[in-house]
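ligand=adenosine-5'-triphosphate
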Amino acid sequence: MITIALVAQKGGTGKTTLAVTLAVAAEQAGQTAVILDIDPQATACKWGDRREAGTPVVLDAQPARLGRALETAAAGGVDLVVIDTPARLESAALEAARFSSLVVMPCRPLIFDLETVPTSQQVVTLAGGPPVVAVLNATPPRGRRAAETRAALQEFGIVVCPHTLGQRAAVGDAVAMGLVAAEFMPSSRAAAEARDVADWIMREAGATDSVLMKETGCRNGQT
Ligand SMILES: Nc1ncnc2c1ncn2[C@@H]1O[C@H](COP(=O)(O)OP(=O)(O)OP(=O)(O)O)[C@@H](O)[C@H]1O
Ligand SMILES: [Mg+2]
């Protein structure tokens, strides 16, 4: 079982959006995915409430019960657990990182996001240091901001996903309906970017062969 935590001390960087995107991508690839929502805002749970499909299962969890929840998931044959953590709550992020094989840090090309990255890194180090990767999220279509943010993250010593997630209306429209972009607009740029990012993250998390890429059979919208 692969366990991935979405961590960023800054609010609104895209943790929940990427959490549900990863879990749906895994389900579409024939895997069983569970989202553990340890954010008191319960945004992932509310997304699950709006969703018609029964999977991925979204569970309302508490940081102190994560170990037990993960044991139950492993015993139930779950392939992927995605832990969605709250912003500004270091103890919750620390607990999630402690149990994860990979920490994913979404970061928008904004100084407010970037300046909180060292704090998030410290939390992960305190947790015993699972690998951390960053994903550039909500990047503008033009300009140098994404490249500059990538360079700044690399200076912090963080591996940055080579694929970026653009600022796309389909992303917000999809989650409003309990979907992700790949379901709402499967041939959109947003969906193609999400597939590339999900695939890369799964490889970083230790998936030996990319089930995601093989099963969806398409990258960048090409079948
Ligand atoms: N790539 C994107 N394109 C367009 N909108 C996006 C994108 N990623 C996220 N959003 C939107 O940005 C907002 C914040 O995203 P999200 O809730 O995933 O962030 P978060 O890090 O989980 O926030 P919080 O810290 O409050 O839990 C949401 O309205 C979401 O729809
Ligand atoms: Mg969130």
